[in-house]
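Example complex used in Figure S2.
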Amino acid sequence: MMKKTGFLFDPRYLLHDTGPYHPEVPERLQAIYKGIEEADLLPRLTEIKALRADIRWIEAVHEVDYIRRFEEVCYAGQKSMDTPDCAMCTDTFETALLAAGGVINAADMVMQGEIDNAFCAVRPPGHHAEAGEAMGFCYFNNVAIAATYLRQKWNIGKVGIIDFDVHHGNGTQHIFEKDPTVFYYSIHQHPSFSYPGTGREFEKGTAEGQGFTKNTPVLPGHGDEEYRHYIKRDLLPAFERFRPEFILVSAGFDAHIDDDMSDVKLSTDAFTWLIETALQLAAEYANGRLISVLEGGYSLKRLPELASNHVHALLDV
Amino acid sequence: MFVSRSMTSEVITITGDGSIFDAQEKMTRHTIRHLPVIDAENTLVGVVTDRDIRSALPYSLFKDPDCGSGREKVEALKIRDIMTKDPLAISPTDTIQDALLLIQEKRVGAFPVVDENRKLKGIISVRDLLRAFTNVLGLGEPGILLCILVTEEIGQLKKIVDAITEENISFGSILVAKYWEDDKRAVFPYLLTQNVSRVKKKLKDMGYHLLDPMDWYLDQLPKHK
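Predicted assembly (542 residues):
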């Protein structure tokens, strides 16, 4: 049966300008939009508006000092924050608020029954952002904010996060590593061969959260076959035990063979299989509730097909 | 790179008349395997290791110190009876390279650190050295390791460093390792960025060979026997 799928996009997400020689460019979102538009999927999607996040939901995840510092350096015209990777312009802070706020709006719409699931095509991405530090093109951790929002505002008992961006989501892991109510699963290129150098197999959560983080490192050169094997071995049993009531997906498309940000070699079809697997888990445990949020993915040539296939799977047509 | 900077200064110690059970309990509580043995003046008189304890205890007592048989007999045994007397020790002003080579050569897990009067100043273990080298490798910081194969001639490293620096990328560390061909070296820059596509292309355009990550190894030398 066809699903009601929400789509979050806003031209203001293009305003975050990372300057020259940076892969995280507005053209990525344009490619994604174009792919969805040309596949004639827009009429089937429900629009999600990019609202400005209420700062208290940002503060639920990020340190107040960090948020202030981000705002200040941004409006002061600084060209980057914490690392040259996190390049910025004067619109970056506002864009980051709109990204997080848009995902929060998606969460509301799912919880109010207006949509079944959603794809949030946002910039800047979020999964590297730590509670108090910008990292790896990320400022506010959109998925972590959404998970916290769902827990606190909508009393969702258990949130499961699936992160298939080719880089480990260090920020998301660290924010929830002590928390047994949020399960963080990530599959990514092995940290000895990839940014950011975390996400090793032995990182499984700490304190109360022990056993509620799971990492699957993938060696360079590996692809579809290994992913299928690892997902069945690691993700499926973990979520069967955890039984998430809501699933958030950190959707990065940079493990694609044509994406030069990694040496992992996934085919276009593998990404469809990944989101379908996440959807099956959502159907099984979470009443179908799933929100997918864009992280990385830098091949402007491949993003249109990857995005349209992704949305196609969400719509279940 | 001095031992004094990398050693553990707050040492868990024991005295010669301590019991084997005290030593075992201290090691378990602090998850350590070496206890320097000192006298009343803090002079190093010996070292006792978990292996010494294991050898001194019958299996039943090692497994369960409270219920095993023969406890009284073992209780009579003192640390001074089982310790290594006058152990090898190193000085706070030795370097961690000294410590590394010595630990490898003597095949021990730790050295007590003493001053010229053999007063105990600390202990340096394989664990402390690993921590020091983990930092040297830059493992705690987010970044990407590249592997570039270069012919051995003067000025290669400078060209690579310049090319990377021009891209406004900072280095976490840079290692140079011997490669399997005599005239080749493998250079491993650890770059503190996620954004390496451009610099990788640039290095290739300069004629450098970037090794497939699956073919990396830091150490091509024959393993020490």
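The two ends of chain B are 27 Å apart (CA to CA). Chain B has two domains: 3-134, 139-215.
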